Amino acid sequence: MFTLAGGAWYGILGRQQTNAPPRLSLVVLPFANLNGDPAQDYLGDVVTEDLTTALSRLRGSTIISADSALTLKGKLVDLRQVGREFSVRYALEGSVLRSDGSLRISARLVDTQTLTTLWSDRFDVNRVDLLRTQDEIVARLASALQGELMQVEASGSPSDAASNLDAEDLAMQCEASTYRLAGEVAAPNLELCERALAIDSQNVRALVRLATYYGSRVSRVQSPDPDADLGRADGLVTRALEIDPGYYAAHCAKANVLAGRHRVREGIAAAERCLALNPSHVGAYRILASFHFFLARPDKVLEYADRGIHLSPRDPETSIFLLFKGWAYFMMGHDDEALVWLRRAAAASPETPIILAALTSQLALAGQDAEARATLARYLALPGTRTRTVAQWDYVPDDNPAFAQFHQRFRSGLGKAGMPER
Q1: Domains with residue ranges and CATH for the chain
Q2: pLDDT at residue 161 is higher than 60
Q3: Are 187 and 233 in contact (CB under 8 A)?
Q4: By CB count within 10 A, which of 6, 88, 201, 271 is most buried?
Q5: CA distance 270 to 253
Q6: Is the pLDDT of residue 297 over 80?
C-alpha cells in the first residue's frame, strides 16, 4: 500500500492543476508488490492496467491512464497532491501479496481532498492459473467499485460543496437507489430520473434506469399493466441506444424487454453484449441466469448464478441468484435442495415479493402448510406486491415444455398455500 507521505514526488507530473476535479474522476495508483521480489512486480502492474480499463467503462467517469499512473510506481505519494496533479476526486490504492497457492489483493478508495477512506476490501483468490486469476481479480474489484462510486457520488462526496443539481446528479441519485434498495426502486426515486429527463431529454443514465425499472416489474411479475410497462421500457431503451449504442447497461435493459416480448434467445444475445462491453456488470449474470431458466437449462442457471455470486458476493441483489438456484434445483426435481436455497434467498432479502412467492409455493409443495400460509401472508403484506392471485402469475416468456411444467407446479403451490385463484 502506498504511504501517505508528503512532497517526495512533487513536480513529477508538471504544473499543478488548480481547477476543481471532475465528478467521478479517479486514478488507479500502481498496486504495491508486498512480496519484495521485483520479479513479481508484473502482477500489480497488470491489475493496475486492467482495473483502469474496467473502470473507464463507468458512464460519465474520468479515469487517468495507467501509463500516467505507473509513473508513480515505487514512489512515496501524498494523496492530496495526487488529486491536485491529476485533477481527480478519488484515488484507488492497493497491494498484492502472493503466496504458494493464493493471491491476496487489498484495495481502498480515498477522497483525495479529505483523505477519507470511502471503501476498502480484501480479496483472497485461489491461484488456479494466472490469466484466469487476473481476470477474476479485476472483475470483482471493478464490480464492487462501480457500485460504491455511484453511491458516493449520488450522496455527495465529502469534498463536494456544490449544491446545484443537474441532470446527471439526479440520474445518479436514482441509479444509486437501486443499490440501497436491492434493485427495487421506490416510486419517489423514479421522480429523480423523470426530473433529470425534464432537464436533459438525452440523459442516457436516466433513460436506462427507467427502462430497467419498468422492464423488471414485468419480469418479476409485479406489474399492474405489463403491456404498458413493456411499451414504456422499450421506448426508453430504444432512445438510449440511439444516443449511446456502447452503453453496456442499455443492452441489459433491452434484454428484459425482449424477454417480456417472448424473445428470450434474443434477450440472451443482448445480455451477452452487455457483458462484452463490461465484464464486471453483475446485472448481466442475473439476466442470463433467469433467461436460461426460462429455457429450462438448470445447469446454465447454476453456472451463471455461481459466477455472479463469486464476482460480487456482497451485491444487494445476491438474493436473486439464490432464488434462481432454488428454482433450478426445483426444475431438476431436487425439491429439498430447492427449499434450502429459497430459504437463504428469503433470509437475504425478506421484502422482495418474488422471493417470498417462490418460498411460499415451495413450502406448500413440501407439505409445510402452516409456514407456507405464514409466508404467503408476509408476501401479501409487502407494499411492493402487485400480483395477488394465482391467475396473475402468468408470465411465461418462452413456450418451453419443461418451463411450462415448472410453472404449473409453482402455481399449484401458491394455490395450495391459500392464494386466491382469481
Answers
A1: 25-143 (3.40.50.10610), 164-279 (1.25.40.10), 304-422 (1.25.40.10)
A2: no
A3: no
A4: 271
A5: 9
A6: yes
